[in-house]
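Posting for a labmate who doesn't have an account.
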Amino acid sequence: MSNGPGLFTDIGKKAKDVLTANYTTDQKLSVNSCSESGLIFTSTALKKGGLSTGDIAAKYKYKNVLIDVKFDTESKVLTTFTFTEIVPSTKTIASLKFPDFDSCKLEVQYFHHHATFTTAVSMKQAPTVDFSATLGTPKIAFGAEVGYDTTSSSFTKYTAGVSVSKPDSCASIIVGDKGDSIRASYLHYLDQSKKNAVVAEITRKLSSNENTVTVGGSYAVNPLTSIKGKLNNNGKLGALLQHELVPKSILTISSEVDTRALDRIPKLGLSIALVP
């Protein structure tokens, strides 16, 4: 299933991850543990603003079925079943949320050497339907995504994109927000390990004629430590440091500064993921 063009959500994802992944202004602590049977437990505590939340998750894989159960502090339970290869070249994902059953969803993904298709249906009385398709190869792909609300008989979204990938770079253009925005991105790797990279992204909002230009990059200081940075034309500067404390246990420190208002206190985020 990895020889095709990938899902529509993969278009522009590598560049987006360099600019957004692991950046946070919250405080988060998560602890993972694994039993001999392969059952994985994760306990997470999160402080966001002045609010503190947490959840406990359990994940277990048996043959071609992955079961993920999450309990949060609001007494909500989210259970996700992922079935691989029930039908050849497919993945089926069913998510059930208690007591909010309107949030339940069923998604089916189909992978082919030159195409991928995804259909997601919300399990409520008047369901919404999302459909995406991607055509091409791992080197060049064209895709589109639409969302339809059966209650109002209207489209909730429609998006189209194209991506071109080479061993040392990838570029993409995505037209989203029902045709109101255009986002173009380019990522270039600086080494064969693909741990060092530079990224440029331009987003234009057609209705307001606003342009946002963001540049950033990632750099591996050593095998245990990496840093990332980004800056946009609105003066928002972000920086991130990740360090592997012990194998698989990661410390992440990130910050955001408004260079046009240096008198304001920078936003700081801290995340610790521990694996005993």
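Reply:
Got it, the structure tokens are right above this. The domain at 8-274 is CATH 2.40.160.10 (Porin).
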